[in-house]
Amino acid sequence: MALDTESRGTPLVEMRNMRKSFGGIDAVDGVTLDLYPGEVVGVLGHNGAGKSVLMKMLSGALSRDEGEIYVNGELANINNPRDARHYRIETIYQYLALADNLDAASNLFLGRELVTSTGLVDDAQMEAETRKIMARLNPNFQRFHTPVKGLSGGQRQSVAISRAVYFNANILIMDEPTAALGVEETRMVANLIEELKSQGLGIFLIDHDIHAVMQLCDRASVMKNGKLVGTVKVDEVTEDDILGMIILGKTPEKGTV
Amino acid sequence: MADSTDTRQLPKHVRRNIIDTMEIDTRLLGMIGAFIVICVVFDVWTGGRFLTPRNIFNLTIQTVSVAIMATGMVFVIVTRHIDLSVGALLATCSAFMAMTQTAVLPQWFGIELGSPIIAPVAIIVGLIVGVAIGAFHGWLIGYLTIPAFIVTLGGLFVWRNVAWHLSRGQTIGPLDGNFLVLGGIEGTLGATASWILALIACAFTIMLMINARRAKLRHEFPVKPIWAEVVIGAIAIAAIVGFVWILNSYEVPGGRLARDFRARGETMPEGYSEVYGVPYSVLLLIIIAIAMTVLAQRTRLGRYIFATGGNPEATELAGINIRFLTVKVFAIMGLLCALSAVVASARLTFHTNDIGTLDELRVIAAAVIGGTALSGGIGTIYGAILGALIMQSLQSGMAMVGVEAPYQNIVVGIVLVLAVYVDILYRKRTGD
């Protein structure tokens, strides 16, 4: 599992001293986190702990008040979602990701449409590319001409994930990717995370399910009231240790990175 | 990933009937059906006066102004906004254009009345005013986040009375002769040019169908059977040829022809006749319809307009500037109001103080009858145009059978509500 942090060279992402406040309340208060290639880092905490806000600053959906983001060791200028995409950071949101009235291909390419030589949207080409990537991620998917509203939760999630995979994400942020899924579908997403990880991607996984985090993640960072409680190596701590961090804000004696 | 979710899917279309095979939009079919029913009922009721070339010609030129604005209203409603100011905006654009051609150019710039540059300059002024006001609305809505309902409700009061201010409430006219060409009956293509137009339209339709089929085959997607393509192509061509044939059957009255000849200092030959053909205003509507459809379906802007209607947050997270998009949508709406103002004032041959009154409601109704969902994300350009045509046919038909204006409005109101209810039922059934 997790290698020794010092021996892994440059992190994919380093967020230093990230800060964001809304109307005087510090949603994120001086958090520093990093992520290495081929690593899954769980980001945990109660609702309102600041984990989603932190991730939204990385994905460019929210601007930050303070802090620096380094991608591959270099200072990255991320102020909007387009910037984040430039650094090959892709986000998979649970609820916000898809335009329900458009089909799979239109959603996959939203904001990055393929165009013909005349500048018109090339739907046939986009559908062909979507079929290719879906053949890999979800071979049973056949409903290419249906608005995604008519798809099941698992199918929708595979559209969202295909977007990240198609555009060669280097850094993936998954915001509760399995919250709306059934048991079988959750297992599929878990397999996919393992596969992406083996390809050298770095993944931030926001999840409430501690059991899933223990299974999928190499490290877990716990936030409470906007502050980082600590980051631990998952195979050196117990579920209770992590629960203690989430509820009491208490760092365990060993395993802390 | 395996897919274990079949139970949650909507029923599959196992039933492959003719309509499925031909991939025809059933909603379009329903609207055309409703339109045909209206036409047949009124034709029987009026003893065959409804479906005459003359009445169909009039129906088309009466529909143009509302239909042009309805295509823009589709974008506005698809992005979950509304525009209550289109009628007032039309009046302001019309007033600007009327003042430009009757006062500003002749008096300030000394351009003689009848000069060929008057009409183009006036139209350009109108278009600039329309786009500027529309973009301003869009800025208030997109950047200052004032609800569109409020901005355009305010706009209704403001622009209706800016128009009054410009003309001091007076009727301005007669308008420039070249300008009137875009009004309808004063400017038509005539027989030959109309047939050439039909020919071009047919060739274009066939070309589009062949290209679409080729693109599918190139990517090895499933295609319709050849017979289905041929049937659809034949129906489209029949519709185009039939439409032009009807407009080409409407003869210019003899008295008017004689007057035209006298004006040129000639005498009309015995037995001479001429037909109107396709009006320029209808040609303008056709061009706008094509342009707006391409914009909606084949450009990034169109894709983002629909994506925003489906899920604004997702669209924004995809890196699209929704605020600026709102400005663009309302600027397009403003442009179309200006074009409608050209057609409406040219049809009347002058600018009146109440031009475009209540058009905002007709335009919204046309878009909604045409299947545009007020919840956003769904709507088609052809639907809005058909919606405008259905409303105009209803009103003309009722006028012809002698229904008084207040009762006409009652019927139109009921039809609007009913149409939306039918649409809701349709969506429930088909699941889209």
UniProtKB/TrEMBL annotation, chain A:
<dbReference type="InterPro" id="IPR003593">
    <property type="entry name" value="AAA+_ATPase"/>
</dbReference>
<dbReference type="GO" id="GO:0016887">
    <property type="term" value="F:ATP hydrolysis activity"/>
</dbReference>
<dbReference type="InterPro" id="IPR050107">
    <property type="entry name" value="ABC_carbohydrate_import_ATPase"/>
</dbReference>
<dbReference type="GO" id="GO:0005524">
    <property type="term" value="F:ATP binding"/>
</dbReference>
<keyword id="KW-0762">Sugar transport</keyword>
<keyword id="KW-0067">ATP-binding</keyword>
<keyword id="KW-0547">Nucleotide-binding</keyword>
<protein>
    <submittedName>
        <fullName>Monosaccharide ABC transporter ATP-binding protein, CUT2 family (TC 3.A.1.2.-)</fullName>
    </submittedName>
</protein>
<keyword id="KW-0677">Repeat</keyword>
<dbReference type="Pfam" id="PF00005">
    <property type="entry name" value="ABC_tran"/>
</dbReference>
<feature type="domain" description="ABC transporter">
    <location>
        <begin position="13"/>
        <end position="250"/>
    </location>
</feature>
<dbReference type="InterPro" id="IPR003439">
    <property type="entry name" value="ABC_transporter-like_ATP-bd"/>
</dbReference>
<keyword id="KW-0813">Transport</keyword>
<dbReference type="InterPro" id="IPR027417">
    <property type="entry name" value="P-loop_NTPase"/>
</dbReference>
UniProtKB/TrEMBL annotation, chain B:
<feature type="transmembrane region" description="Helical">
    <location>
        <begin position="179"/>
        <end position="206"/>
    </location>
</feature>
<dbReference type="GO" id="GO:0005886">
    <property type="term" value="C:plasma membrane"/>
</dbReference>
<feature type="transmembrane region" description="Helical">
    <location>
        <begin position="226"/>
        <end position="247"/>
    </location>
</feature>
<dbReference type="GO" id="GO:0022857">
    <property type="term" value="F:transmembrane transporter activity"/>
</dbReference>
<feature type="transmembrane region" description="Helical">
    <location>
        <begin position="117"/>
        <end position="136"/>
    </location>
</feature>
<dbReference type="Pfam" id="PF02653">
    <property type="entry name" value="BPD_transp_2"/>
</dbReference>
<feature type="transmembrane region" description="Helical">
    <location>
        <begin position="329"/>
        <end position="350"/>
    </location>
</feature>
<protein>
    <submittedName>
        <fullName>D-xylose transport system permease protein</fullName>
    </submittedName>
</protein>
<dbReference type="InterPro" id="IPR001851">
    <property type="entry name" value="ABC_transp_permease"/>
</dbReference>
<feature type="transmembrane region" description="Helical">
    <location>
        <begin position="407"/>
        <end position="426"/>
    </location>
</feature>
<feature type="transmembrane region" description="Helical">
    <location>
        <begin position="278"/>
        <end position="296"/>
    </location>
</feature>
<feature type="transmembrane region" description="Helical">
    <location>
        <begin position="86"/>
        <end position="105"/>
    </location>
</feature>
<feature type="transmembrane region" description="Helical">
    <location>
        <begin position="141"/>
        <end position="159"/>
    </location>
</feature>
<feature type="transmembrane region" description="Helical">
    <location>
        <begin position="28"/>
        <end position="47"/>
    </location>
</feature>
<feature type="transmembrane region" description="Helical">
    <location>
        <begin position="59"/>
        <end position="79"/>
    </location>
</feature>
<keyword id="KW-0472">Membrane</keyword>
<keyword id="KW-0812">Transmembrane</keyword>
<feature type="transmembrane region" description="Helical">
    <location>
        <begin position="362"/>
        <end position="386"/>
    </location>
</feature>
<keyword id="KW-1003">Cell membrane</keyword>
<keyword id="KW-1133">Transmembrane helix</keyword>
